[in-house]
Design a protein that fits this description.
The complex is a heterodimer. Chain A has no helices and 12 strands. By secondary structure, chain A is an all-beta fold. In chain A, the strands form 3 sheets. In chain A, strands 2, 5, 6, 10, 11 and 12 form a 6-stranded mixed beta sheet that branches. In chain A, strands 3-9-8-7 form a 4-stranded antiparallel beta sheet, with no helix packed on it. Chain B contains no helices and 11 strands. In chain B, strands 2, 4, 5, 6, 9, 10 and 11 form a 7-stranded mixed beta sheet that branches. Chain B has a 4-stranded antiparallel beta sheet with strand order 1-3-8-7, with no helix packed on it. The chains are: A mainly beta, B mainly beta.
């Protein structure tokens, strides 16, 4: 079975500081990893994904994520947070293109001015 | 924790038939549920936002008459794929928005639709 853990319910960051939202996963096989963002009253929006290749993946809105196979992690990062980054962030994994995504519980990011 | 179920988990149907997929929030009420479609090797596509007691809001490019959504109660939303075709074969995932101390959404386990 595949699973995803987002250990933090909420992350608080001051505007301009770097942010990290943590995600660890468990799969049998090579993972496909995704990050999504949800703004209030909206559905999920795709941020970035890792399939193969470089461990550092760059995505929308200046976000990036680093795939670490040994630690089974795919943490989301941004060098300088904006107040407008405040939202819910979901990490998801599947083991190949033929399986359904499994989502983490979500992490609320709060960026304060 | 909050639980969202989907039924059926897997369905195979003939081309031209209709298929109904249910999404239930088992231990909380959800005024808003979302329906997504997952494409192979791609990320999720939001199909529509389902609001209890009102019409669903569809994303651009999603056919309202083909993907009928009904959110009849605070714990149940249904997606009906009408006149299904092989290109409709996909994973369909719902999520339910839970308000409160842990304001987040919970995802169903998904439904795999195969249209022959």
């Amino acid at each position: 079975a595949q699973s995803v853990a987002q250990p933090e319910d909420q992350v608080n960051v001051a505007e301009g500081n770097p942010l990290t939202v943590k995600c660890t996963y468990s799969v049998s096989g090579n993972p496909y990893l995704f990050w999504y963002v949800q703004y209030p009253n909206r559905g999920l929006q795709f941020l970035l994904k890792y399939i193969t290749g470089d461990n550092l993946v760059k995505g929308s809105y200046g976000f990036e994520a680093e795939f670490n196979k040994s630690q089974t992690s795919f943490h989301l990062k941004k060098p300088s947070a904006l107040v407008s980054d405040s939202a819910l962030y979901f990490c998801a994994v599947t083991v190949n293109a033929g399986n359904m995504l499994t989502f983490g519980g979500g992490t609320r990011l709060m960026v304060k001015p | 924790g909050a639980v969202v179920s989907q039924h059926p988990s897997r369905v195979i149907c003939k081309s031209g038939t209709s298929v109904k997929i249910e999404c239930r929030s088992l231990d909380f009420q959800a005024t808003t549920m979302f329906w997504y479609r997952q494409f192979p090797k791609q990320s999720l596509m939001l199909m529509a936002t389902s609001n209890e007691g009102s019409k669903a809001t569809y994303e651009q490019g999603v056919e309202k008459d083909k993907f009928l959504i009904n959110h009849a109660s605070l714990t149940l939303s249904t997606l009906t794929v009408t006149s299904a075709h092989p290109e409709d074969s996909s994973f369909y995932i719902c999520s339910a928005h839970k308000t409160g101390a842990r304001d987040t959404q919970y995802f169903g386990p998904g439904t795999r639709l195969t249209v022959l």
